[in-house]
Specification:
heterodimer; A: about 650 residues; alpha+beta; six-stranded antiparallel β-sheet; four-stranded antiparallel β-sheet; about 60% helix; B: about 180 residues; alpha/beta; Glutaredoxin; 2 domains; five-stranded mixed β-sheet; two-stranded antiparallel ribbon; 5 helices; disordered N terminus
């Protein structure tokens, strides 16, 4: 019964999306103006209905209703409850339903609260939002109904990819989706503004919180995804330039650029067409990313829901939405009147530079991700890896970091380097000192060297905008910026340390053997079998000690075998200290004549590696501060405007009476 | 710098994003519609292996000298790298081929000893020799456009067959057939 309620809610929501699209578009014409009143309520109810559908799906997964095909294919009654629920979006249909749900709710939210823009722009925005949603509703209802029944119901489900049975991953995709869908709101705003030719500061202020929120979720999602790949895949790396990772990085790069250009538009009314363009590009990247991951068109280490036919469907949606938006952009961009001008050396100039560099990196990542496809079209199959991505993106990242250190201190419109130069003497000296220190230490490759040096300089320079301000009266948005930029420095430091100072050992150890890795002494104490709810495993008991007189700690990496579906995974064991992480993986029994009774153990000592993710979280936290600041000041402005309006009204009333 | 800002954007620039996007759609359509045919005849087939002498990629294993390929027996030469995702995909198939007695020589492209060791540990090690092609010179000399690629070489050092892309399970029998041809 629940499944049928869910399906009915989904159909109704789709119907309301049609209404929202038609009423919203007709209301823009002279004759249909009366229809405008239907648009906001339609958007709100559509959001509620899609949420009902999604809750129904969660329910059938939670109770493992095996008569629903999706549950039978992807779940198993023996799974822990939290993973049953996470299984709702761990598959293609469920994740698409999550997508429309978040999108519908975001649309409803815009309809409920956004009152600053001209009504026509809002109507066009909501119509655009409905148009994008409709594609996904059609996709769900026609090609991949999540509520389809299975008769007769099987006695047991198929299970879920064991790699996905992990808490981190249970919440990783929804986080990214919130980010993607937040960008869909920015996209709809861009469409609305283009249609009604209302590209200006008011539009930027309405769009900014959505971009910020989406960007925060994307940042958290990428950080969490990277950490997940790091400890779950057991390869010791934290970023593989894999298509799936690039798929989440590209929207982030575009959103970061958009975030900065939207600020310029909001405060200076410059960069109009460019901001609208980025609004379209950012959401395009979300959809292209989803397409690349779902269609299986590229070989990836971690694509879990691959199907070429669905790929074609998403491609069709992509072509219609993005192609349409770009045509609209091309037709209207020329009529978007020119914004304010500014000098090369100014806050705007620095932000434009940062935008161009981010776009260049975006282009590099996109090109590298698509290159295997391009080569295949010409008859060759290739894989593009870190030897391409690392130096190419660094080429643009480092100049950007340099400008990032200076930009926040520049004034709007026109400035001179001399004015800010003095403040930069200290960070500059720090950079030189760090560089000399590293040269004396020796053996550090170019990229990590640059990374470490830049990280040190940027960490200090990022705090400079606070200089001379009263800390208590500094706006939250400035705190947010400082925190996020500082987070970039922290993450960069972690990345560079990881690649410069990691120590790795691979040993075939007998029980009782002691191995040394960096400052650690590691003893293989025992190998024991253990069992979990849906797996069995071999577990190594490692006794590890830091330095000569450190405390002995136990680490237990496992080599797990799941039985539904059958698959081997390695559960790494991590030990975090303030100055790094010890990472241990148990392989199989060593092969060969000498391998008898020996076990393969891989060990890494990674100094300061947690700073990568700590930095990522700091960046996201900076976003949260900025969002809080923006929303608070928007609220204050709305309230103040309301008061002014009230006062004028009562004054007018008084006059009338007099 | 401001040239990229909309102030001075020429008219064609406004259509540029759309053009790029259309190129993307066409490219992806080709990818989706293309039959999975990977048997591209290479210009190198029928020619002798270019001469090279690669240093060992791992301390405990000999490097790869092209002379060794002309020792009278057919060989499989596999170009791979630890950073290459399809290489992980093809590893089990190489394992099968090695288990069936095929001598497999590896050329590891732009890799580090630690990563290579970890890769072999993770995915199995079917190689007799592994030469380190640190600047990709041999890869270029072979006319290989990317990683992975596999060559069937006969006992005289002549390339009989070039396999572009990863070896999938369905390719194993075909490769064994080519090797049999090569031994004739």
């Amino acid at each position: 019964m629940t499944a049928e309620i869910g399906l009915a809610a989904l159909w109704l929501a789709a119907g309301l999306a049609v209404l929202q699209l038609l009423a919203g578009s007709l209301a823009l014409t002279r004759r249909g103006e009366a229809l405008g009143g239907a648009v906001r309520p339609a958007a709100v109810v559509q959001g509620v209905l899609s949420l009902v559908a999604f809750l129904c799906l969660i329910y059938v997964f939670a109770v493992t209703d095996l008569s629903v095909k999706l549950v039978a294919l992807n779940s198993h009654s023996m799974k822990p409850l939290v993973f049953k629920i996470a299984g709702t979006w761990g598959n293609h249909e469920g994740s698409m339903l999550l997508w429309v749900t978040v999108m519908g709710m975001a649309g409803g939210f815009v309809a409920l609260i956004e009152r600053r823009l001209p009504e026509r722009t809002i109507l066009a925005t909501l119509a655009g939002q409905a148009f994008v949603s409709l594609g996904f509703y059609a996709f769900l209802l026609i090609a991949s109904n999540p509520f389809e029944r299975l008769s007769p119901a099987p006695r047991e489900g198929n299970g879920l990819n064991p790699l996905l049975q992990d808490l981190g991953l249970a919440f990783h995709p929804p986080t990214l989706y919130l980010g993607y869908v937040g960008l869909s709101v920015a996209f709809s705003f861009a469409i609305g503004a283009l249609v009604t030719r209302e590209v200006g500061p008011a539009f930027a202020r309405a769009m900014r919180p959505w971009v910020l929120a989406a960007w925060i979720f994307l940042t958290v999602g990428i950080t969490a995804g990277s950490y997940w790949a790091y400890y779950e895949l057991g390869w010791g790396g934290w970023w593989f330039w894999d298509p799936v990772e690039n798929a989440s990085l590209m929207p982030w790069l575009a959103a970061t650029a958009l975030l900065h250009s939207v600020s310029v538009l909001a405060s200076r009314d410059a960069l109009r067409a460019w901001t609208v363009m980025l609004g379209v590009v950012a959401f395009s990247m979300s959809m292209i990313g989803t397409f690349l991951v779902r269609s299986g068109i590229l070989t990836s280490v971690h694509a879990f829901a691959v199907d070429p036919e669905r790929g074609s469907f998403i491609l069709a949606l992509l072509a219609i939405n993005i192609g349409g938006a770009l045509i609209l952009f091309a037709l209207r961009a020329a009529t978007v009147t020119e914004g304010e001008r500014f000098a090369l050396i100014s806050r705007e100039g620095a932000l434009v530079f940062n935008n161009v560099m981010l776009s260049a990196i975006l282009g590099i990542v996109l090109f590298g991700t698509l290159y295997p496809l391009l080569a295949e079209a010409m008859g060759a199959k290739v894989s593009v890896g870190p030897p391409y991505f690392n130096p190419m993106s660094a080429l643009f990242a480092f100049p950007m970091l340099l400008v990032l250190a200076v930009g926040p201190m520049l004034r709007w419109r026109r400035d001179k380097f001399v004015r800010v130069g003095k403040a930069l003497v200290l960070p500059g000296m720090l950079v030189v000192a760090a560089g000399l220190g590293l040269l004396i230490w020796g053996g550090v490759a170019l990229l990590p060297f640059l990374g470490l040096v830049f990280a040190v300089g940027l960490a200090l320079a990022s705090l400079l905008p606070l200089k001379g301000r009263s800390l208590r009266r500094t706006p939250l948005a400035v705190w947010g910026m400082v925190t996020a930029h500082f987070g970039i420095a922290v993450a960069l430091f972690g990345m560079s340390c990881e690649s410069a100072f990691t120590v790795e050992r691979l040993v075939a150890a007998k029980v009782g053997d002691v191995t040394e890795v960096g400052p650690w002494a590691i003893k293989l104490d025992a190998i024991e079998p253990v069992a979990g709810p849906n797996w069995t495993a071999l577990e190594a008991r490692l006794l590890v000690r830091y330095g000569a007189d450190g405390k002995v700690v136990r680490l237990t990496p496992q080599s797990r075998s799941f039985w539904a579906p059958p698959q081997q995974t390695s559960e790494s064991a991590l030990l975090t200290r303030w100055n790094g992480q010890l990472y241990a993986v148990l392989g199989g029994e060593a092969a060969g004549e000498t391998g008898e009774g020996r076990w393969q153990v891989r060990l890494w000592w990674k100094p300061f590696v947690p700073m990568i993710w700590l930095g990522g979280l700091l960046v996201a936290f900076g976003g949260v501060l900025a969002l809080m600041g923006r929303v608070a000041s928007d609220l204050r402005r709305t309230i103040a405007r309301g008061r002014v309006a009230d006062r004028q009204e009562s004054r007018a009333l008084l006059k009338e009476r007099a | 710098m401001t040239g990229t800002s909309p102030h001075t954007a020429p008219r064609w620039a406004i259509w540029l994003p759309l053009a790029l996007f259309l190129a993307f759609v066409v490219l992806v359509l080709i990818g989706l519609l293309r039959p999975a045919d990977r048997n591209v005849t290479s210009a190198l087939v029928g020619k002798p292996m270019p001469a090279f002498n690669l240093p060992p990629a791992l301390p405990a294993r000999p490097g790869l000298d092209s002379k060794i390929l002309a020792n009278g027996k057919p060989h499989l030469v596999n170009i791979f790298a630890s950073w290459c995702v399809p290489c992980r995909v093809e590893a089990p198939q190489l394992g099968v081929l090695a288990a069936r007695g095929v001598p497999i020589e590896g050329i590891s492209v732009r890799d580090s000893t630690e990563n290579l060791q970890a890769f072999l540990e993770e995915n199995g090690d079917p190689f007799q020799r592994i030469g380190a092609d640190d600047d990709g010179k041999v890869q270029l000399a072979l006319g290989s456009s990317g990683v992975p690629e596999t060559y069937v070489v006969d006992g005289k050092g002549t390339i009989i067959y070039q396999h572009i892309g990863e070896i999938r399970p369905e390719h194993v029998e075909m490769l064994l057939e080519k090797l049999k041809e090569a031994s004739r």
